[in-house]
Amino acid sequence: MTTQTATPTPTQTAKPPLRVITTILHLAALGVIGSAVLATLSGLLGAGIGLLFAFGVGVLLLVGLVYALFGIGWFEVARVGGLYRVDIAPLRWRGSGHPGFGGWLRSLARQSIDGRMWRALANFAIAGVFGTIVLRLAWGLVSSAIFAFSPLMSDGPVDGIFGNAVAPGWAPLVGILGVLACAMGVLGLALLHRTISLAIVVRSREAELTERVRTTTAQREGAVRAADVERTRIERDLHDGVQPRLVSVGMTLGLAQQKIDDDPETAKALISEAHTSTKAAITELRQLARGIHASVLDDRGLDAALSALAGRSHIPVHLDVRMEGRCSREAEAAVYFSIAESLTNAAKHSRASEARVIVRIREGGTLWARVEDNGIGGAQVQPGGGLDGIANRILAAGGTFRLDSPQGGPTSLEVNVPCAS
Question: DSSP H helical segments within 84-204, as ranges?
Answer without folding.
Answer: 100-112, 115-148, 171-200
